[in-house]
């Protein structure tokens, strides 16, 4: 038991956990892809489920939005529940006209405008990066299931409603592909705990074209990403 995640004895947290920001996306994944899912936590309605996928135990836990929230839930999963692997299954806004709404982006590294790293007291700028082991599994899963993705740098921002129309262009000029709000904290917590993390996101908004997915699409439609993450989780 931890402060923010309760555990039903019948459903211990699995070694590998998928983490969407949206707890209702967690519910959707559990109910549509896991066998015999049991909801082990509903504190603050931040649902967590454990079931099996292809016979292997897998959990799905909402992270909430932003680095403080992801920071709390992933910390407790790694340090209180012996979780080894976390795969974020999120949404992101694309800065790149080659990466369209509905495409999948994998965060090799997560730039950030947040000061989350202050907790770790490094005497410089830390570079949050993904687990190579999980990346290799994801690549294999993508090839086996014919699901494509683009891998590169994303930025994890503290602010969703940034002021002005142009703020993202400087990130784009550094070949940062997309913006989301959690990967950097997840990668830092994983590194500090000596565990594995990978953030994959489906593009829900486009900064170049102005396109936007609906709330319903963000909750339920991004199934290739869910499948890819589940396949990687059980390898
Ligand atoms: O869809 P999720 O996983 O929540 O991810 C993105 O969506 C939220 C903003 O709408 C932020 O959490 C951002 O990172
Ligand atoms: O953080 C996010 C997520 C999706 N779309 C955005 O523009 N920002």
UniProtKB/TrEMBL annotation:
Classification via SUPFAM superfamilies: Purine and uridine phosphorylases
Gene Ontology cellular-component terms listed: cytosol
GO biological process: nucleoside catabolic process
Residue ranges occupied by any Nucleoside phosphorylase domain in the UniProt entry: 17-231
Enzyme Commission identifier(s): 2.4.2.3
Keywords assigned by UniProt, alphabetized: Glycosyltransferase, Transferase
Keyword Transferase applies: yes
InterPro entries in alphabetical order: DeoD-type, Nucleoside_phosphorylase_CS, Nucleoside_phosphorylase_d, Nucleoside_phosphorylase_sf
Keyword hit for Glycosyltransferase: yes
Recorded catalytic activity of this chain's protein: uridine + phosphate = alpha-D-ribose 1-phosphate + uracil
GO MF entries: purine-nucleoside phosphorylase activity; uridine phosphorylase activity
Top-level taxon in the UniProt lineage: Bacteria
PANTHER family: FI09636P-RELATED, URIDINE PHOSPHORYLASE
Family label: Belongs to the PNP/UDP phosphorylase family.
Protein name per Swiss-Prot or TrEMBL: Uridine phosphorylase
Organism from which the protein derives: Aminicella lysinilytica
Lineage: Bacteria, Bacillati, Bacillota, Clostridia, Peptostreptococcales
């Amino acid at each position: 038991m931890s402060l923010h995640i309760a555990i039903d004895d019948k459903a211990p947290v699995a070694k590998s956990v998928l983490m969407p920001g949206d707890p209702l996306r967690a519910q959707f994944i559990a109910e549509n892809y896991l066998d015999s899912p049991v909801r082990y936590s509903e504190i603050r309605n931040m649902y967590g489920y454990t079931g099996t996928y292809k016979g292997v135990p897998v959990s799905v836990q909402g992270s909430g939005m932003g680095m403080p929230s992801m920071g709390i839930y992933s910390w407790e999963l790694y340090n209180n529940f012996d979780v080894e692997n976390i795969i974020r299954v999120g949404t992101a806004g694309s800065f790149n006209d080659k990466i369209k709404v509905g495409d999948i982006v994998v965060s090799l590294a997560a730039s950030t405008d947040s000061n989350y790293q202050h907790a770790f007291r490094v005497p410089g700028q830390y570079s949050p990066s993904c687990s190579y082991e999980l990346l290799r599994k994801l690549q294999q899963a993508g090839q086996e299931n014919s699901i494509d993705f683009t891998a590169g740098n994303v930025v994890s921002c503290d602010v969703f409603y940034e002021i002005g129309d142009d703020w993202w262009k400087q990130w784009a000029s550094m070949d940062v592909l997309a913006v989301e709000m959690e990967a950097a904290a997840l990668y830092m917590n994983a590194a500090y705990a000596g565990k594995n993390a990978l953030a994959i996101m489906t593009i829900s908004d486009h900064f170049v074209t102005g396109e936007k997915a609906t709330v319903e699409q963000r909750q339920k439609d991004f199934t290739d990403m869910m499948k890819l993450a589940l396949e990687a989780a059980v390898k």
